[in-house]
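Please produce the structure of this protein holding uridine-diphosphate-N-acetylglucosamine.
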Amino acid sequence: MDALRITGGQRLHGTVAAGGSKNATLPIMAASILCDGPVVLSAAPWLTDVCTLAELLRHLGVESQRDLAGDLHLCTADITPTTAPTGLVRRMRASFCVLGPLLARRGRAVVPLPGGCNIGHRPVDLHLAGLTALGANLRIDRGFVIAEARQLQGAKVELRGPNGSTVTGTANVLSAAVLARGTTIITGAATEPEIVDLGRFLIAAGAIIEGLGTDTLEITGVEGLAGAQHEVIPDRIEAATLLLAAAITRGTVSVTHVRPEHLTAVLEAFSAAGALVAVGNHKITLHAENRPLPIDLIARPYPGVPTDVQAQFMALLALADGASVIADDVFPERSLHLAELARLGARIERRDRLALIEGVHRLSGAEVTATDLRATAALVLAGLAARGETVIHEAEYLQRGYENLPEKLNQLGAKITRISPTQAGAPRFSRQSRKPATHFTR
Ligand code: UD1
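Below is the modeled complex.
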């Protein structure tokens, strides 16, 4: 997919299923390095990021395959490789999740530092401090983290940073601690459902973990992990994006294969913005008739509104009946979507860490360029509501985190077509002028 053309103005109606969670699948795939037996993941989404990690794992001796039912099978064929190739890690930040499992299972890990990205500063200091606390001998050489430990030792590890707990840092340290000798206590652990899912997977493979879903995890190290069969949780970010599509087009959409309890803060935000929300068994229905009401929204670590829906909410509030404010406590600099939303007629001003959004009556179709995964989703939503035609260049970002989003939205009545770069015309600026040399998603 290179570009998307959206003819806006259709109210969305119908029922659609969310896919499996990307952010749960990636660390679980990385943790398969720990397992001596086969791993089978059902409901793992078919995304570019999942394929990238599968390719990286292949370099590390873990073979993967999808069966006809869509289940993802992972099996370690060779436990000797310990070096993750630079290109693949730099293509996707979550690849850094192989560090803890490699170190714990193979005694050595050489993993490139993931570097910066276009949603703001994203350090890995907490990952490194956590693994050092477990006894890893760790150094950084020419952009690589080189970690060694003949046997990790249980320890006390604190994973809270200035902007909250680190999610993939928790995944890395938790995955390493399951094979450490003795007990590890992680304080300031991320409580995101994706970490709980990783924990459930590890327990199914033989790990001993207490406290999942709280910020204190107690891990009793075991000698080894077997394989496991595991069903990945539904993607709460995709579900929220689909509900936002209903809200922004003033339609009625039911999203199935969803865990409403993972979306409490998001559903509260919808209600505050005037949408009607009904929660059922693994199902959420949203109905919106009028312009959204203005709200103040702060993206926070779980159970708050996720930073990964901040951009999409900004698209909705661009059409609100009044002024809204959005802040992102997790990634305060996540704001590249502001300029592109403005091209569609949104009135958004950035003041310090706040985005001030003056709702307008309507957005108008225009040519825009995607800058990262969730910003692309925000542009799709805005395009659905805009009058006329919107063309989103470089929309391939979408497939990194959403399985067939255009098709799912079309099933609800949207008019989105995938178009080639020739049909789309040149983007308004060259890649070099606008973006860093490598891009990362969450
Ligand atoms: C994960 C998610 C991403 C989501 C983010 C926050 C995956 C694959 N990605 O990213 O979609 O947006 O959580 O919910 O699950 N930080 C430090 N030191 C560190 C690590 C992080 O200070 O060592 C800071 C970050 O700069 C950020 C905050 O902690 O301000 C949270 O980041 P973190 O949870 O680590 O994000 P990721 O795990 O990379």
